[in-house]
């Protein structure tokens, strides 16, 4: 993070065309009084994600939306990193799902590669989700915030909630996958709570602390 910013309630662009991500960010922003609109609703183009890290891609998307809209913009870049696969799919998490964004295919690809390595025991299937939220203002000021949650890959997929790789990710100290959790359980966080669960909620917690005067 470059420096703390104070973001006052008003128009705010969520720089994403991913409906699942937009929905989660809208839920997190709900208590703070913003007039939120997505990049998709504004008809903004999706910039090519040319960064080599989650942070670089989040900043790229936030800056593009801020300049195109003339409004403060909040972008997310996130994905699943599997330790036995050297951190893959990582920043290519969405691309593993193909042009149709079929995450059943992406989850099967993760499982097939783990099995090809003989990684069947829980300690061989360690993984983490990472999310970076980047706030950008027209003119170039930007601040990124990173959240991470650790866990393990399970198979077969469990639960039809959430999106993406949620049904195969079991967070540490929990008995249910993200795909089996309600939206409130997975990413629900409000000012005054000590700990958020999901990677995106943890990134948002930092964003709220530094930009929204939301305390802990």
- The number of distinct β-strands equals 6
Strand order of the largest sheet: 2-1-3-4-5-6
Unreliable stretches (pLDDT < 50, length at least 5) are: none
Report the CATH C-level class: Alpha Beta
Percent strand: 15-25%
**Class derived from helix and strand content:** alpha/beta
Count of the separate structural domains: 1
Report how far the terminal alpha carbons are from each other.
17 Å
How do the helices and strands follow one another from N- to C-terminus? EHEHHEHEEEHH
Mean pLDDT: 90
Percent helix:
25-40%
CATH topology grouping: Maf protein
CATH architecture: Alpha-Beta Complex
As a whole number of angstroms, the C-alpha radius of gyration is 17 Å
Give the helix tally: 6
The largest sheet, given as strand count, sense and whether it forms a barrel, is:
6 strands, mixed
* Cα shape: globular
What do you see in this structure?
The chain has 216 residues and is α/β, with parallel strands linked by helices. It has one domain: Maf protein, CATH 3.90.950.10. 29% of the residues lie in helices and 20% in strands. It contains six helices and six strands. It has helices at residues 19-29, 39-42, 54-69, 103-116, 183-187, 199-211; strands spanning 11-14, 35-38, 73-82, 126-136, 142-153, 169-171. It has a six-stranded mixed β-sheet. Strand 1, helix 1 (19-29) and strand 2 (35-38) form a beta-alpha-beta unit. The longest helix is centred in the N-terminal third of the chain and has 16 residues, at 54-69.
């Amino acid at each position: 993070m470059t420096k703390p910013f104070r973001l006052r309630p008003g128009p705010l662009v969520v720089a994403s065309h991913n409906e699942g991500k937009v929905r989660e960010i809208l839920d997190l922003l709900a208590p703070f009084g913003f007039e939120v609109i997505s990049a998709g609703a504004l008809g903004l183009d999706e910039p090519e994600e040319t960064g080599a890290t989650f942070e670089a891609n989040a900043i790229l998307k936030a800056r593009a939306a801020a300049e195109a809209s003339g409004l403060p913009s909040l972008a997310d870049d996130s994905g699943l990193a599997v330790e036995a696969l050297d951190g893959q799919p990582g920043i290519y998490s969405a691309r593993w799902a193909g042009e149709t964004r079929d995450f059943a295919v992406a989850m099967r690809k993760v499982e097939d590669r783990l099995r090809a390595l003989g990684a069947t025991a829980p300690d061989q299937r360690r993984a983490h989700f990472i999310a970076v939220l980047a706030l950008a203002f027209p003119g170039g000021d930007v601040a990124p915030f990173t959240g991470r949650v650790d866990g393990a890959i399970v198979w077969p997929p469990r639960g039809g909630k959430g999106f993406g790789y949620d049904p195969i990710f079991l967070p540490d100290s929990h008995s249910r996958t993200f795909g089996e959790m309600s939206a409130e359980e997975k990413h629900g966080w409000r000012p005054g709570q000590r700990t958020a669960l999901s990677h995106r909620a943890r990134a948002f917690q930092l964003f709220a602390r530094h930009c929204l005067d939301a305390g802990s």
